[in-house]
Design brief:
Layout (H helix, E strand, L loop, with lengths): L1 H9 L18 H17 L3 H11 L6 H5 L6 H4 L2 H10 L4
Helix pairs in contact: 1-2, 2-3
Length: 96
């Protein structure tokens, strides 16, 4: 996550959807979920809630073990207070 934070500080658009090139054929579902989850944490820490939510949606598709971490990880504390986060939880059927 430190490396993602440094990259984001150097280039605020580095992880924009058009920039990120993850090759699904060579990455396991678990790896893709992990990358999206850590990018969501990185954006949440940077205060970029919309970007964080976008990567959370990718990480949570389909509902996975990610859900239990969302309610505990400190990086998502501010995001958990937003209506958009609650909507995501409803969409994904993730409960506290």
């Amino acid at each position: 996550m430190e490396v993602y934070a440094k990259a984001l500080a150097l280039d605020p658009h580095i992880f924009d959807p058009g920039q990120v090139q993850i090759v699904d054929e060579t990455s396991s579902r678990r790896q893709i979920v992990a990358v999206n989850y850590y990018l969501a944490k990185t954006y949440a820490t940077a205060g970029k809630m919309q970007e964080s939510l976008a990567y959370l949606r990718k990480a949570c598709r389909p509902v996975s073990a990610t859900g239990k971490h969302l309610m505990k990880d400190k990086e998502f504390a501010a995001l958990r207070a937003t209506p958009e986060f609650h909507q995501l939880m409803l969409e994904q059927a993730i409960r506290d």
